[in-house]
Amino acid sequence: MPGGRRNAKSSSFKHHSHASDDRHSCDLPTQPQVVPPKHIPMPDIPHNSDFHFEFDALLLSIFAMAGQYINLYSSVFWLPYSHNEDFLNYYLIDYYVLTINLIMVGRRIPVSILKQLCSLCFPSSYQPTCTLCVHILTITCFVPILLFCFYNVTLEHGVLSLVFLIYPYASILYCRFVVYVSALGTNVAKFLELKSSPPEKAPVPKSKGAAANNKNNSVINHVCSMSAETIREEVEMLRSDFNIRLKQVLFNSFLVVYHATFLPCYFSPSTLHYDVHFVTQYGVFTGIGCFTLYISHCFPPKYCDVLHKAALHLGRWQRVEIKNVHVPYSTWTESAMWNQGALVKHSKELFKAEGISNAAEPGHSGHSRFYSLFKNPATAAQLVWFLLVFLLFAEVFVLVQSHTWNDLFSIQLLIMINCKTLYSMTRVYFVVKKIYHEEKVIISKFNN
């Protein structure tokens, strides 16, 4: 019967069925098959290994700390009647505080060196055991030295000084500042190491259990899929990994600023006079320099490209207000992929698809933020690049305005390491800008 064929045809497209509603009166035509977006392969952009990055980070921390101590304890040794022949007043420096600061900003270097030696001496199957032994050995060596320094600092400056020394690590007991607990949790490995580029190949997460295993193994890779549920699982895994990396960047940047610029000022003698405005400005410069250095390492181009590819498959839904009650729409379903411009109803609201392919859940703020942030990673690279350029211009401006030798010397230390970061970010920015521009042109031609 003709009527029977028509019913069978309409039932075959289950996710386009219309719920009874007075907003529309006509049926939507059959939605065409969703075509996955086209990706341009990311070229191999030179990227520093973890071992080299740790030396750069240590160099920045030591330069920043040395510059701050120069700002605080510089002497007037060139004057004819000066009783100090050294360019610093060394007798005013608290060497126990200096030792604590050096250990905290350089805690990852021994781990990196020992892991490098283990990788050369032992096969890959023994690496997890070697890593655990390296962490235990590092903590065993550092803890007695720190306790001895804490004890002497407490005798010299009082019990209150101990609170400032352990503030970033036990701040939840101090003033509800949960930097360490909320950012890094209780995993000691996250404190002794920095999450960097994972292996490039990974199995496809076909279920929640598989996605959890991939998440635990820190393996990041994108596999093009036409399954909406698989895409959303992949995005959730990538969002979790991105949040961990960002928290590590913020926490480690704060830690360097705290130990390299703030604690030297706090534990300086009360009779010492220094330029508060300049040392505060110096701390801000150090924080921005650390942030850009860490973010350029923790978010390399290949990693951001994986997030970008996942965002193109995820898409985004924009909430719309339609006054015409006869506008046709479809009911959103979890298993369906949607083309650009599709109109669906979800949770009694209407949404319009914006991405090339759309697997996101309408009204999901996390999916919308993920797509907005990674639909064009060149924008984020541009922001970091402009931040570095602004930082260097500000440092050069302060350098020109300075008239004392300690100001000139301390700012030059920061400029040297920031120029190296700017060089690597400039290369990354212009490469990814060209790649994603070409990808956008190809996608536009393909859609037309």
UniProtKB/TrEMBL annotation:
Recorded coiled-coil stretches = none
Chain spans, region Disordered = 1-30
Instruction: Please give, as recorded in its UniProt entry, the membrane topology of this protein.
Output: Multi-pass membrane protein
- List the InterPro entries hit by this protein, alphabetically: Uncharacterised_TMEM39 (IPR019397)
The record's keywords, sorted A to Z, are: Membrane, Transmembrane, Transmembrane helix
Q: Basic residues: which segments have biased composition?
A: 1-17
Q: Where are the transmembrane segments?
A: 57-81, 87-106, 132-153, 159-181, 249-269, 281-299, 383-402, 408-430
What's the domain of life for this entry? Eukaryota
Q: Cellular component GO terms, alphabetically? A: membrane
From the Swiss-Prot or TrEMBL record, state where the protein is found: Membrane
Q: Which family does it belong to?
A: Belongs to the TMEM39 family.
In its UniProt entry, what is this protein called?
Transmembrane protein 39A
